[in-house]
Amino acid sequence: MRKAALLSLILLACPAALAWPTGASAARAGAGKAPVLVELFTAQGCGKCKDANAYFGKLADRPGVLGLTYSVDYWDYLGWADTFARPEFAERQKAYVARLKLREPYTPQVVVDGRDEAQGLKTTEVDKLVRAAAAAPRDPPEIHFVGNRRVDVGSARAPKGGADVWLIRYDPRAVEVAVKAGDNRGETVVERNVVREMTRLGAWKGKPQAFRLPPPEEEGLKTVVVLQGPKGGRVLAVGQAKG
Q1: What's the structural domain count of the chain?
Q2: Which end of the chain is more exposed for a tag (fewer CB within 10 A), N or C?
Q3: Per residue in 13-71, pLDDT tens?
Q4: Phi, psi of 86, deg, nearest 5
Q5: pTM score, two decimals?
Q6: Does residue 10 lie in a domain region?
Q7: Those residues with Cβ within 8 angstroms of residue 22's Cβ, 6 or more apart along the chain or in another chain
Q8: Is 202 a member of any domain?
Q9: Is 223 within a domain?
Q10: For residue 97, what is the DSSP state?
Q11: Beta-carbon neighbour count of residue 23 at 10 Å?
Q12: Which of 143, 144, 151 is nearest to 213 (CA)?
């Protein structure tokens, strides 16, 4: 009875203990290897972004790649307010600009695993970065979703300063937007995997930790958790919820 009571106390104190796989299933969730995170910063008012969006849509279909599209708002002054832009997306890009020591944000820009970046129309260069990221050694912690309410991040060696845990929700469809003003007036812009929500869940220091997931703001979105060094650091792990 004492052992049973002690076990109950442990599980109540550490709910994450209920979620971790055991035995053969303890192999890392990405035993099939975690996808390379490829992020496109684009804008509906950017005249050069349409072709980059088309290329990115094909890139997102590749096995082993998770492509996410962020709309930014700094082209809105041309007359068209981007329908998907949020200030936090531009802030994410600014963090990459600072860490990668670039002069200023620009579109279309592609960032691969938070490590490298390239102009979105330089498809050969982007392809090279994606291949290099896929071949790079990595030892990510497990990311395990418990229903749609919690995500558990396992243990691994953490970078100096730890890492941020980001919740990202995106629309997996190809979305068409008819632009009625600015440089793309009269054009239909097509965007794929458009990020609709981005929330920092907290910090991770290398030890197992559970994070609560807020409910989605809209239906039909895919959920991803990204473990990443602070201030636009390198991506350590990517977990995708089922469904």
Answers
A1: 1
A2: N
A3: 344 443 444 333 333 433 457 899 999 999 999 999 999 999 999 999 999 999 999 99
A4: -140, 145
A5: 0.86
A6: no
A7: none
A8: yes
A9: yes
A10: H
A11: 6
A12: 151
